[in-house]
Structure formats: structure tokens, C-alpha cells
Amino acid sequence: MGKLSVKIKIGDREYPMKVDAEDEAKIRKAGKLINEKIKVFRGQFGIDDWQDLLAMVTFDSVVEQIDVSNKYLKVSTLSQKLDKINKQIATEI
Fold first, then answer.
1. Could you report how far apart the first and last alpha carbons of the chain are, in Å?
2. Contacts of 92 (CB under 8 A, 6+ apart)
3. CA dihedral sign, ordered 11, 12, 17, 19
4. Other CB atoms closer than 10 Å to residue 47's CB: what's the count?
5. What is residue 18's DSSP assignment?
6. Residue 8 and residue 23: Cα distance in Å, rounded?
7. Phi, psi of 47 (to 5 degrees)
8. Which of 5, 28, 29, 92 is buried deepest, with most CB atoms within 10 A?
9. Rg, C-alpha atoms of the chain
10. What is the pTM of this model?
11. Is pLDDT above 80 for 1?
């Protein structure tokens, strides 16, 4: 598939970009999630400065990414341990 021209509004600005057609929904969802976080921080902390809002959204997003990464590592480690146990059981049978 080809590239699509889309405009994503973040805060009070529109950002034109070209994206692969299969990525359009993901890109639009990302823009929506950013705007939702902006709205939350604005309401929760009364922040009106765009730079501060975007910094808080960025910080919050990175913390979430670290949490997801840590959970993935735990699941991956557990999966490896289970594979090892399954192999030990299979050789004993």
C-alpha cells in the first residue's frame, strides 16, 4: 500500500504527515491518546502552558513504556523458566 497524507491535531496545532496506509489507525489513535492526556493534565493540575503540558504527557508516556517493558521482561523470564521445566519433564518421561 502507498503513503497517505494525514493531519494529526495535537493540542492546538495540526501536524501534516505521510504514513503507510496500514499505520493510519495507529497514528490517529496515538494523536487521540496524546490529546486525552493533555486534557487530563490540564484539568488535574490546572496547567495551561503548552510546553509544560507536552512535557508532562511525554514524561507520563515514558513511565508507562518503562512499566510495560518491565512487565514484558518478567513474562519473558517466566516463559523461559517454564520452557526449561517443560524440557526437564519431557526428558524424564
1. 51
2. none
3. positive
4. 15
5. E
6. 13
7. -85, 130
8. 28
9. 21
10. 0.74
11. no
